[in-house]
Design goal:
- InterPro entries: ARFGAP/RecO, DNA_rep/recomb_RecO_N, NA-bd_OB-fold, RecO, RecO_C.
- One of its GO terms (biological process) is double-strand break repair.
- Belongs to the RecO family.
- Involved in DNA repair and RecF pathway recombination.
- The protein folds into 2 domains: about 5-80, OB fold (Dihydrolipoamide Acetyltransferase, E2P); about 80-245, Up-down Bundle (de novo design (two linked rop proteins)), CATH 1.20.1440.120.
- The termini are far apart.
- A 5-stranded mixed barrel has the order 1-2-3-5-4. Strands 7-6-8 form a 3-stranded antiparallel β-sheet.
- It contains 7 helices and 8 strands.
- Helix content is about 35%, strand content about 25%.
- It is an alpha+beta fold.
- Helix 1 (about 85-100) packs parallel to helix 3, helix 1 (about 85-100) packs antiparallel against helix 7 and helix 2 (about 110-120) packs antiparallel against helix 3.
């Protein structure tokens, strides 16, 4: 069986019987793929530290009939700052789940690997929530679901004076007339829309410069989570935990 080496980020790591772990990994060249790390949960295993979620590492793998197997692995980046708080871990889990559900195995979408690596690197520096909002918008764009934020997606007029409505079924902003009868729909202040346009362009290291109020940030969060849920037709498991954490 052929051996090969791949540098990849661990999106998910699930414990199985016999101390094995099934990994969901994402690499720059190969995109998403799964592999099994035999015996990785044993206390003496050298693989143990490198197969944890949110770890970027170098993996030597052997081709298998169903799943390739991890022969050796070495952690290259552990993103220690995001692991320092429960909130950081929750955000990282959410971003990993988003990448998992928006991608298919064996297909590398240009930009997604760089996006999650940069976003993980920014978590823990004080502006985690705005980094997550930026990640959501950029991932939607890379996956073909970029919300239209310029004017009413239906009639082309200005979306409204002071407020706009994000309508997932229409694919973006709508004026009050065109939004009528559509549900769900999310009302947004004009400054929330402008921030969304900005963070879709800026890299994570620049996002700390953005100053927005709590109300605006909450509107953006609710609108983007609703937009994502509509297009996925399901609610992510990690969102339930984030909701619990935010309400504590």
């Amino acid at each position: 069986m052929k051996l090969y080496t791949e540098e990849a980020l661990v999106l998910k790591s699930v414990s199985m019987r016999d101390a094995d772990r099934v990994l969901t990994l994402y690499s720059r060249a190969g995109g998403k793929f799964r592999a099994v790390a035999h015996g990785a949960d044993k206390p003496s295993s050298r693989k143990r530290g490198s197969v944890q979620p949110f770890t970027y590492g170098k993996f030597q793998l052997r081709r298998g009939r169903e799943l390739d197997s991890v022969e050796q692995c070495e952690g290259l980046e552990y993103f220690k700052r995001l692991r320092e708080s429960l909130e950081g871990i929750a955000f990282a889990s959410y971003m990993a789940e988003l990448v998992d559900v928006f991608t298919s195995e064996g297909e590398a979408t240009p930009g997604i690997f760089e996006l999650i690596m940069e976003s993980y690197g920014g978590i823990g520096e004080g502006r985690d929530s705005i980094i997550v909002r930026s990640f959501e918008l950029k991932l939607l764009s890379l996956s073909g679901y970029r919300p239209h934020l310029e004017n009413c997606v239906s009639c082309g007029r200005e979306a409204g004076d002071g407020r706009a409505v994000l309508v997932p079924a229409l694919g973006g902003l709508a004026c009050s007339r065109c939004a009528t009868g559509h549900a769900p729909a999310y009302s947004l202040k004009r400054d929330a829309v402008e921030v969304m346009k900005l963070i879709m362009k800026w890299s994570p290291d620049r996002l700390a410069r953005i100053k927005i109020g709590g109300g605006t940030e909450k509107e953006m969060k609710n609108a983007l989570r609703g937009f994502i849920q509509y297009h996925l037709e399901s609610r992510l498991k990690s969102v339930r935990f984030l909701d619990w954490l935010e309400n504590e």
